[in-house]
Design a protein that fits this description.
The protein is α+β, with helices and mostly antiparallel strands and 265 residues long. It has 4 helices and 15 strands. The strands form 5 sheets. Strands 1, 2, 4 and 5 form a 4-stranded antiparallel sheet that branches. It binds 2-amino-4-trifluoromethylsulfanyl-butyric acid (MF3) and cobalt (II) ion (2 copies).
């Protein structure tokens, strides 16, 4: 299926749901700390989303049972909130998607619980910079492969790996729509980006090898096959003539909080 080109009005509507997702993620950043459970994070996201008159997109999406994905340590993505207690030294990705006014907005960030190990800090910082390098490639006329190549070259130069089995995606009236945005690839290859396309970039970076396994019991939780740490950041982006508009860019820098070190601008 072809990639939809959104109108200016549609992009403004996606910006509204995207900014809600960004603000909810910022709230998580202000509250997250050791001894909380991932179910506590789910409750914060669920209640803040409902309070805005919006709907948490993950809830019941293809059978997903909660309102947010919480992916701790070796969990790559799609972690299901549970009674798991966050411990000093854990790293966690919180992935918020908000549906409002007929459109979805999707963003995620890593949080440090207490003091992270040097390895945890490294994989998190590589994922954060990888997303920014991917974003820097986006403009009318560039190609999808330019995004993937920029991310892959940087991540591998840092002795980490890029997950292949999960990709960024078009977003709008549907949570996931064309195109697939691979976080690896070759410059000059893939479809051309055109003004009005809206998609996510959300590189999953492993400290070890890129292979992942899906939990055979819950069919959702994705873990690194080698047990190494994994990190991810995500933004929803609209292509413009000269670059792009990061629709989920957070309105302010997070105020200093000892539990939160990695939330990016
Ligand atoms: N938010 C995830 C993404 O970035 C998708 C989660 S699907 C869910 O695409 F069902 F697990 F919520
Ligand atoms: Co997401
Ligand atoms: Co996404």
């Amino acid at each position: 299926m072809a990639v939809e080109i959104k109108t200016a009005a549609e992009i403004e509507a996606i910006r509204v749901s995207s900014q809600m997702a960004a603000e909810t993620l910022l709230l998580v950043g202000e509250l997250i700390r050791a001894k909380m459970t991932t179910d506590d994070i789910n409750r914060i996201v669920h209640e803040d989303t409902i309070r805005r008159g919006a709907v948490p997109s993950p809830l019941n999406y293809r059978g997903f049972p909660k309102s947010v994905c919480t992916s701790v340590n070796d969990i790559v993505c799609h972690g299901i909130p549970s009674g798991q207690i966050l411990q000093n030294g854990d790293i966690i990705n919180v992935d918020v998607t908000t549906f409002f006014g007929g459109f979805h907005g999707d963003t995620s960030a890593m949080f440090y619980i207490g003091t992270p190990s040097p390895d945890a800090r490294h994989v998190t910082e590589v994922a954060r910079r990888a997303l920014e390098l991917g974003i820097a490639e986006v403009r009318d006329g560039a190609r999808l492969g330019d995004i993937g190549a920029a991310i892959q070259e940087f991540v591998e130069s840092e002795k980490c790996s890029v997950v292949r089995d999960f990709v960024g995606h078009g977003i709008g009236r549907r949570f996931h729509e064309p195109p697939e945005v691979k976080h690896y690839g070759r410059r000059g290859q893939g479809d051309r980006l055109r003004t009005g396309m809206v998609f996510t970039i959300e590189p999953m970076v492993n400290l070890g090898r890129f292979e992942v396994d899906v939990d055979p019991n819950d069919k959702w939780t994705v873990r690194t096959a080698d047990g190494s740490l994994s990190a991810q950041f995500e933004h929803t982006i609209a292509v413009t003539k000269t670059g792009c508009d990061v629709l989920t860019r957070r309105p302010k820098q997070l105020q200093s909080s000892e539990t939160v070190a990695a939330l990016f601008r």
